[in-house]
Amino acid sequence: MNFGGFKFELWKIHSFREAIPLIMMLLLGAALFTLIILFMRGRRTRAHALAKIEKRLARLSHGKGRFADVAADAGPEANPACDAVFAAGNALVLIKVFWWGLFATGETEGKTWEILDNKKRETVKNPLTALLAKCKGAEGYLRERKMPVTVLPLIVFADNYGRPQLKLPLSAKAIIFGNLKKWYRLNVPKPNKTDNPDAILDAVKPVFTK
Predict the structure, then answer these.
(1) Rounded to whole angstroms, how far apart are CA atoms 54 and 86?
(2) I need a labelling partner for 37 at 20 to 30 A (CA). Which of 2, 119, 141, 150 fits?
(3) Are 70 and 85 in contact (CB under 8 A)?
């Protein structure tokens, strides 16, 4: 049995002293595994999920998009309809994030969805219903200001414990974080010189502050 540069032959270990190197290796491996789990758990938060979504969208928009955490003051126990907005090109994306959950099932018009992982199962109100209501409000504000902007709802499952599996129809507007690049290229138009993402975010600010 080889561990790095050490070679152990278990059948030759006849005393505790001879077993010490093996025990140390096993303890070191267990400690390292524990540290990895604690690190991942510490980053399994709404804030971290939004941070990595923001970073990915900034790269996809080549730095020309604008991202805003519109639910930053909601608190860890809150469940806002929309967590963040992103403007790029002539599109405004309203984002709802699930930072935990490796499995999700539900229907586009169902009352509830079921989110679960290896330890817990939670039934939540259909997030698309409330998100679409926010989209409608944003569209109204943009229409009043005669801004031809396409408003897109997007639900992102971004659990860093693994790759989430979704049993949701395409009409549910839900993707996993790993598919964000593909979704962006299919839905967000390329920016041009006349686009003003800051103006778009300013125009819809009342939707999230009232």
Answers:
(1) 8
(2) 2
(3) yes
pLDDT by residue (tens digit) across 70-111?
986 555 555 789 999 999 989 999 999 999 999 999 999 999
- Report which of 48, 87, 57, 69 is spatially closest to residue 209, judged by C-alpha positions: 69
Contact in structure between 95 and 156 (CB atoms under 8 Å): yes
Residue type for position 125 = K
CB within 8 A of 17, min separation 6: which ones?
Answer: none
161 with 40: CB under 8 angstroms? Answer: yes
Residues 143, 151: contact at Cβ < 8 Å? no
Record the tokens describing residue 58, joined without a space: 């900034």
Q: For the CA atoms of the chain, what is the radius of gyration?
A: 23
